[in-house]
Specification:
Elements (H helix, E strand, L loop, with lengths): L2 H6 L3 H8 L5 H7 L3 H10 L29 H25 L2
GO molecular function, one term: heme binding
Pfam families: Cyt-b5
GO cellular component, one term: endoplasmic reticulum membrane
């Protein structure tokens, strides 16, 4: 596949590189490619994996994409100090109210 074809691929070069060296059939089918894309794919098919060798395929690696849930945001950094301040304020009001 030429670099100009990579640009016409909606996912770009990165998507193609992620699938390189492995069986991309399932990923290809999940996307729902055009008939032109299917013709191009047929020209790239090298062969079929023997059923006895399927267990040798390495499991997909975990994605190394970070998401917002993986990293604590500003809210997480403010939540604990805000709770501590609220408890201190509450205790101050309770104990300062008793002394009056």
């Amino acid at each position: 596949m030429s670099p100009s074809s990579w640009r016409s691929t909606p996912g770009g070069e990165e998507v193609l590189r992620e699938q390189a060296g492995g069986d991309a059939t399932e990923s290809f089918e999940d996307v729902g490619h055009s008939s032109d894309a299917r013709e191009i794919a047929q020209s790239m098919m090298i062969g079929e994996l023997h059923p006895d060798d399927r267990h040798k395929i390495a499991a997909k690696e975990e994605s190394h994409v970070t998401t917002l849930e993986d990293e604590p945001g500003w809210f997480s950094y403010l939540l604990l100090p805000a709770l501590i301040a609220a408890v201190i304020t509450l205790l101050y009001r309770i104990f300062s109210g008793d002394s009056e």
